[in-house]
User: Which sequence fits this backbone?
């Protein structure tokens, strides 16, 4: 089956490509870019994407799919549906499932579940067995089975000793250790420490809980010469630590979530547990530092930390409610609204952070918009104004603090693996 | 004139007129407590649930007595043997209780924000009897009532809250209420027990108890909460007493008419010496009596005017 994307702006910073053109996809392959003949157009479905952008398929490198173990909250398929609806063609899923992704069997299970889906799912392996921080996971076996990184996400790798060994071992595969940076002894509260935690009487988490682990990991990465990736960075000091580490040539990368560049701890004043996250929402000065870090390249990519939780789990007392929010379906809209339309980032920079850099961090190829290449594409309408409605989400869970929020810009289609998601439908474009 | 809010969730943002009304109403109820028959039919037919998810003796008894003095029907709920142990969610527990047609819920919970959460999931009138480290508004009101009873006013008084401010729900309610009523509020305690940014509430911070004593008319002395890991914040109770404990010797040194409050229970020999706890400066038992009157006022005003 042939499809034509007409009058679309082809944008791929990796290729220095930014031009309006027509694009023909035949049997999942980019067949032709440029003026299309009547022969090219014969039997093709034509989509007029005037004013829209066609970019390499977006990649979210920090997603929780909950399967195996908590299929009531999300499954590999519902999470992948949410990813497609949010504009992502590929995602990486974190290992804090039950059981954890600490065996080749679980990796194979995840890949098997997702193999026929438009969205490609790349598992991230646990760095330590059951993420307990006591013994290394079978990292080699996990690598062979197809993991793209290692993490004990949800918590930091427990001790400097096991961190050292995980880092040294990961060098054999040139994959990063992806670190959840919170010192456990300081991070046992419910929100950021500040005037709001004082006013609300909620147990506080100081920003140094994050800074200390970032510092520890930077020192260890310098020592081991391994790759470290700082997940969901949230403090001003951490951003500066990463900036300085990059200047020293340490192999460090970092990501930020949309909620950490959009919301402050002021949001918690209503005690709504949809604003409870780990790391917690910080302050305006942290957001300013994060945006500066995004603009100057200190922060390499944006990831959702999509963390589905059931309604009954979130609808409870604040200190007992689990951390985390869903984010796959709001991520692009928030990034366009808060970063591009406010002129902190160009659309090219955003595509770099949502599509190119995540793949580079995980040693995966960046899709190219070139004749002969597989079509792995996202179509973005940067100007469409829409209202977030969690009840229309594909995700099984609804725990978003952005419900009813007005956003500008979203993905209107994704194409990958000879499939297309458009107007809420998965379309097989292979036949 | 009714209160401006349906619920009493805290004293943050409660207008001066509301606090004045509660304190004035409490004065009339205080008088009832000295009568031979200490009961009025004001809340007859109203059903109140005391939902205590955290241990409490005096607050629960104080609320229960206040309810009985007003002729309300009361039910007590505590966590031991409750449905939460059987895996039921807090929300379902509360909605089941509400389905039994209760009018008011008095709630104490270890999680800040639970009273606010209850206003979203039930239609009952909610009274906060202490939520996490957040607020304990009736304690704040009874403290203000007791101070006003002693001095005849609140405006212009210098009141210092002493002790583990960071782990106190009494401190915040006192700060909000007293400042609204025009008092000058300060706090005093070791640096490890002072919460972030408290000065931005217009509160002076003392780290020296002698300065706090010499500059204030009232000391509201908080309990050192050993059950909340106070031990991580101070080297020892002995050292705390030595540098922050209120002793007769310290009070006499400044030779002034200072008034000591304490929300109880007292750790004798830690925050207060026994001599002070039983001495002429303290109004601790007055606070306990006044607590019933203040809670009667709150229950009456919320229970009959909304």
Assistant:
């Amino acid at each position: 089956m042939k499809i034509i994307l007409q009058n679309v702006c082809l944008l791929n910073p990796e290729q220095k490509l930014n031009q309006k053109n027509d694009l023909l996809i035949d049997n999942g392959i980019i067949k032709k870019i440029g003026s299309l003949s009547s022969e090219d157009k014969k039997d093709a479905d034509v989509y007029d994407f005037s004013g829209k952008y066609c970019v390499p398929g977006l990649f979210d490198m920090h997603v929780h799919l909950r399967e195996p173990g908590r299929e009531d909250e999300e499954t590999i398929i519902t999470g992948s549906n949410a990813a497609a609806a949010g504009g992502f063609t590929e995602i990486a899923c974190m290992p804090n499932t039950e059981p954890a992704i600490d065996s080749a069997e679980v990796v194979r299970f995840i890949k098997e579940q997702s193999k026929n889906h438009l969205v490609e799912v790349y598992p991230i392996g646990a760095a330590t067995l059951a993420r307990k921080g006591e013994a290394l996971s079978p990292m080699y076996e996990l690598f062979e089975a197809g993991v793209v990184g290692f993490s004990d996400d949800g918590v930091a790798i427990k001790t400097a000793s096991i961190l050292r060994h995980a880092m040294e071992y990961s060098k054999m595969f040139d994959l990063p250790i992806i670190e959840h940076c919170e010192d456990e002894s300081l991070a046992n509260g419910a929100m950021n420490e500040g005037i709001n935690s004082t006013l609300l009487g909620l147990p506080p988490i100081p920003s140094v809980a994050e800074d200390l682990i970032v510092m520890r990991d930077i020192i260890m990465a310098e020592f081991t010469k391994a790759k470290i990736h700082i997940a969901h960075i949230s403090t001003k000091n951490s951003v500066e630590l990463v900036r300085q580490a990059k200047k020293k040539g340490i192999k460090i990368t970092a990501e930020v979530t949309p909620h950490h560049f959009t919301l402050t701890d002021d949001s918690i004043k209503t005690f709504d547990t949809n604003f409870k996250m780990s790391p917690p929402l910080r302050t305006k000065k942290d957001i300013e530092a994060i945006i500066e870090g995004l603009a100057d390249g200190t922060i390499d990519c944006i990831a959702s930390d999509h963390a589905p939780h059931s309604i009954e789990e979130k609808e409870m007392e604040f200190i007992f409610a689990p951390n985390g929010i869903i984010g796959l379906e709001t991520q692009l809209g928030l990034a366009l609204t808060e970063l591009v339309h406010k002129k902190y980032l160009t659309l090219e920079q955003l595509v770099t952070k949502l599509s190119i850099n995540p793949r580079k961090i995980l040693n995966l190829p960046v899709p190219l918009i070139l004749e002969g290449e597989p079509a792995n594409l996202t179509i973005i309408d940067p100007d469409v104004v829409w209202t977030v409605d969690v009840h229309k989400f594909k995700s099984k869970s609804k725990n978003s603090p952005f419900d009813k929020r007005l956003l500008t810009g979203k993905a209107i289609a994704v194409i990958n693996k000879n499939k297309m998601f458009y107007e809420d439908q998965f379309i097989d474009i292979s036949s | 004139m009714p209160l401006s809010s349906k619920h009493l969730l805290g004293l943050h943002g409660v207008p001066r007129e509301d606090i004045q009304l509660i304190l004035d109403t409490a004065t009339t109820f205080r008088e009832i407590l000295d009568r031979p028959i200490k009961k009025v039919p004001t809340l007859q037919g109203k059903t109140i649930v005391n939902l205590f998810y955290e241990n409490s003796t005096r607050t629960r008894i104080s609320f229960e007595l206040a309810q009985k003095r007003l002729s309300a029907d009361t039910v007590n709920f505590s966590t031991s043997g409750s449905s939460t142990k059987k895996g039921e969610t807090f929300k379902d527990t509360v909605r089941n209780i509400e389905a039994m047609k209760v009018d008011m819920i008095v709630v104490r919970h270890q999680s800040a924000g639970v009273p606010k959460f209850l206003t979203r999931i039930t239609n009952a009138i909610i009274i906060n009897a202490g939520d996490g480290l957040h607020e304990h508004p009736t304690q704040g009101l009874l403290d203000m009532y007791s101070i006003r009873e002693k001095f005849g006013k609140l405006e212009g008084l210098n009141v210092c809250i002493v002790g583990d401010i960071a782990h106190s729900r009494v401190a915040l309610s006192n700060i909000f209420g007293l400042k609204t009523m025009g008092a000058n509020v300060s706090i005093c305690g070791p640096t490890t027990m002072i919460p972030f940014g408290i000065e931005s509430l217009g509160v002076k911070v003392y780290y020296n108890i002698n300065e706090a004593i010499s500059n204030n008319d009232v000391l509201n002395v908080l309990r050192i909460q050993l059950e909340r890991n106070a031990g991580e914040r101070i080297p020892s109770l002995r050292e705390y007493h030595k540098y922050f404990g209120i002793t007769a010797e310290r009070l006499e040194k400044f030779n002034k008419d200072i008034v000591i409050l304490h929300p109880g229970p007292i750790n004798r020999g830690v925050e207060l010496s026994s001599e002070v706890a039983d001495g002429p400066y303290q109004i601790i038992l007055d606070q306990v009596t006044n607590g019933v009157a203040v809670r009667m006022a709150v229950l009456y005003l919320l229970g009959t005017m909304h």
Summary: The mean pLDDT of chain A is 97.
